[in-house]
């Protein structure tokens, strides 16, 4: 039996036979090979992850260059007002699902939804959709954080109407993200569902003073389709 074990060990590079302990053990060379294989696998994994990260960075850069070169460039960040979210929720959902933009819901808009939820089934459904998307961590939709605001100075009476005050809060949200995404025109756009807002010289002048671009959501959707067809 002992002789047989020794013969097996002598003819096998994977095992050695210990005569005293009377058992087979794996050769040190095999252990070293396994350790080397694990190190190589780990190094290969790190290399692949690095390549994926680099590819992602390149894709993001190409996207920004592609759209910044167009006369009517698409914004990176879209801020929406209450009218856009309530009256054009389907368009908002399409913008989020397109994964081309970061859609920001200002805190004042969420407060307005909360005030109207008892009066409208559509508002309640919109709130549920928002809650679900935010809980799921949709990276293309976010609610305004507490500190995500950049104050703006307005010339006028110290006491503002509720409409102007709410609009000011939205502009301050836009102003913050304009600083986050850069000062280039079109990087941050406020989408509204209100014709009255676009026809208000006072409100439009407020937006112009802080260089915030405002578009009606239906107009923006049309422009998006045009760009898509050309692309």
UniProtKB/TrEMBL annotation:
Organism taxonomic ancestry: Eukaryota, Metazoa, Ecdysozoa, Arthropoda, Hexapoda
Gene source species: Schizaphis graminum (Green bug aphid)
Domain PIN, chain residue ranges per copy: 76-199
Pfam families for this protein: PIN_4
Name of the featured protein: Protein SMG5
InterPro entries recorded: PIN_dom (IPR002716)
